Fold these 3 entries.
Entry 1:
Amino acid sequence: MRVLTGLLRSAQEATAQFTLNIYKLASTVTSVSNPLELQSPNFYGGGDTPLADLLVRISQEPTHTAIIISDMVQSKPGTDSSTLAGALAQLANQRPQMRLLGYRSHFEGEYFPENKTADWHGKIPLSVSQSLPGSGRPFYILVVAPSVEAMIQVDKYLLSRFPPAHTFNPTEPPIIVDKIDLLLDDSKEVPWSIYSRPTRDVTGKRLESTFLLKKANVESRTVLPLGFNVQLKSPIRPGRASQLSWEVTKATWRNNQFSSITEARIPIDGDLETNGQRIRLRLTLQNPEVNSWDIYRVRMRAGGANLDVPAWVTDWNTDDDNVVGNGNRTYQLEPLVEAMTIQISEKIVFCEYILTIGRKG
């Protein structure tokens, strides 16, 4: 209640920044004219919580910023995680900014389990204290903003005043590439040399590096081993580092002119180091012609089913909310965050990379 009333008060104080409308989410979405209603226990005695329906409704108002305060339990007959994923996909098409903030609080009251496959479906008297860290009942703030500027405004005037225990941001790049290096193996001669140090372009967003083929192999292709120093905002699933999605185009500089730009494919093999801070990739490249340069433009995405949910989401998740001992967990939080990851995070371009390779005569 402290966070809820505090957010409302902050929004009312920032009237120059926001036009505030309050709605109650239950079986239907209804307008709230008197904010004092939020302090009444009866306000929270509604029926089902159609979270998927709400996301569809938000997608129909693409210029509005929505702040949802909820336990994030999808409770509507006939719906499941696929329904929620579909609603998120519709919302993701609007390309909004999105952020999920997790909190815990004291809870004293009745809880209606959503695990319909359990032997018992009655209500549970629940008393969950936040006297110890991580023991309170989870609740969440889901923010959907139409632009980066709108999210910054919400963060400045509202969210920064109420720091969460955890945050998941599906619309930020899931992987941050800090540096790309040539991996040198002392056990054998490396056919590549660094022609220019990896740099960022003037925008600071695109990485560029150039390598020179010392001598061409008998084979028409040569493996270029690269190390990508990364920060993982979302963990990569085990064994999936080589499955990153690469969208590649290629042009060749020869005889003082560029060839036309064409789509290209670069076979990749690689893995993630155990510390999770470097991805090692081995790129199999067509050898450039003598006295020419091949320029590859790569747009990197995480790709389908390559990202895992953050560890805190797994810790806060339960698949059986009929058990009193799971009162400090959220029923099927993991499928909700997985849906956000699949529909949004895995499709974001997290790195643009210009790779130039040359071969002298």
Entry 2:
Amino acid sequence: MLFSIAPKKKKSELFNRETEFNTLEKDVESGRIILLDGLRRIGKTSLLKVFLNESDHFSIMIDCRAFEKNNRIERESFNRGISKAIEREFKTSKFKKFIGSFSEIGIGEISISLNNKIENEKPDISDILNDINYLMEKREKKFIIAFDEAQFLRFYGRGGNEFLQIMAYAYDNLDNIVFILTGSEVGLLHDFMNVEDVEAPLYGRYINEITLERFKKEKSIEFLKKGFDETEIVISDNEIEKAVDKLDGIVGYLSMFGYMALAEDDFDFNTNLARTSDMAEKIVKKEIQTLILKSLNYGYVLNAIAYGMDRFSKIKKYVKNNFSSISDPTLSKILSGLKKQSFIDVEYIKTQKLYAFPDPVIKKVCEEMTFEK
């Protein structure tokens, strides 16, 4: 169903992502590390889940957010989470058929029985990957390890370097292990991977990257029409176009609009669009409030950009006139942080750097922000 708000799991539920799906399929066969990135609520997790469900290869998927506490990922807990996910994959009928007559498989120092649990409380990830690679190699299969919101891996150990070293080792030695990393905070994910730093673990390794773009207007309209065709709700072409103008081509918002229409006993277009906008704005407000807790300057700068201050000098002047003075280094740091976390976009016209919002809901929320003086 197109209008479910949970990540999709079936290919029939995936809309207008055939190119990205096929690219992901090709990259898994030939690549070793794949980045799947794009804006918040653009459909990365849906694409990844559908792909893993459809793939002939074996896989696990880890949501890195579940392991992050106070800017830290506890290594033993995270490693245990990976081991448990592998254990679950080994207990599927698909894997049992693949492994044939084996009843037990040695994974490093851990004995994983198809009927029992992993006993070792401190699994060594490198040993696990070595043994899985050996097993996959014998059957000419890949084992995919997918990390959703992988930018949080930077909190694993010291700056995530230890995990990057594991990935680098697998890249160089384990041909049947493939990593897929998704991230909505694209700049932070790139910073974590740090592939251009000669001292970094992944330096010199080729990373495949797939970026999900928002739907163009005609595709957004097609998505809503197709979704409503699956329902008994009557909606006009004019109303669909109005919804797209309001919510843009971000599939998460469009799905929310359709889902909330289904939840209504008596569908009213204007009421539903207003409720959808309100819910989307609440989600964005929560994300921005988290930023502002770090520094009010984030809020000041977002407010400036929302009011059309699209250049560095204009933003600085607006913040100074309306809130407080801000130094050039501080403003540069704030703008860089907002870009890395995908709250703003940067484009160049000739040599001029311009700042704008990739998401109309973020823009609206930032226009309406107020600050105590």
Entry 3:
Amino acid sequence: MKFLDQVKLWVEAGAGGNGCIAFRREKFIPFGGPWGGDGGKGGNVVIEAVDGLNTLIDFRYKQHFRAAPGGNGAGKDRHGADGRSEMLRVPAGTQVFDDTTGDMLADLSKVGQKVVIARGGIGGRGNAQFKTSTNQTPRFAEPGRPGESLWIWLRLKLIADVGLVGLPNAGKSTLLAAVSAARPKIANYPFTTLHPNLGVVGVDNHEFVMADIPGLIEGAHEGAGLGTRFLGHVERCAVLIHLVDGTSEDVAKDYKTVRGELSAYGGELDTKMEILALNKIDALSEDDRSARRKALAKAAKKKIQDIYMISGATRQNLEELLRAAWIKVAETRRAQGIDVASSDDEEEAKPISSWSPLDG
């Protein structure tokens, strides 16, 4: 299944039903008076965040959604039926924007959240509603009101505990494949990853979700490379693992480039908890490892021991990195009032099954 994280839709709520003009005419009741019922209310357009979805691909081939209109009123003071609402089911993490104003209409960050995006029109009143002491036989009724309609944008920001960021070819996909059952595309050229991938990672009887974010380049916040298209996914992550390619000629410059893009994008990305890791150390000599580690620590203004030396290809020191990530994830969950007790009743702690937006 393809990954789609933004789509433009036309939504139109149902119109209200028309009121009815009718009069009571029965045997022995020659002057029964008005008897027309009201029209029913038009259906709403509702967007709900549901479990089991991780892409907006369902909206790729259908972009127009209309709720049912309300039924017309009828004689014998019968009211029209309310129109059926149109329900749009989206993944958790979907934001809804008004295409005209650009305003955010809803942020569906949790499963079960729902919002009425377009409200149905109210039904018109039948002539029975207009009877007065001076007008006992009104011969008019109200038409139903039209429903609301507008163009909207759905934009998905994947929800993950840990986000992998770094320049293209930093080894993010290799790392995700090494610590989870996710199988992202891996190749030795920039922008191999064209969409985010998610994997469920296990360490010390704990689990958290890790996201592989497509590589950033200088000017990404202005649209360069893959641009801001995927920077938004980082907003949902509690912790960032910043991977720096150890085989790069200037690791300090690589680090500052990514940090600069996170800061320029906004959304407090540069204030998120960060774990810094020098990747691909299997391709470096001991002297090169030491020199690059010192240079990276100086650029990041961190202690040398705070720089994790890892290899996604050989899985060297990955457990220490994941353990450090879990500690920060647990801090965030506790701050949110979420239980972080370990699952000791499980058979064993190991990387478990995962999913990516391509899995469906």
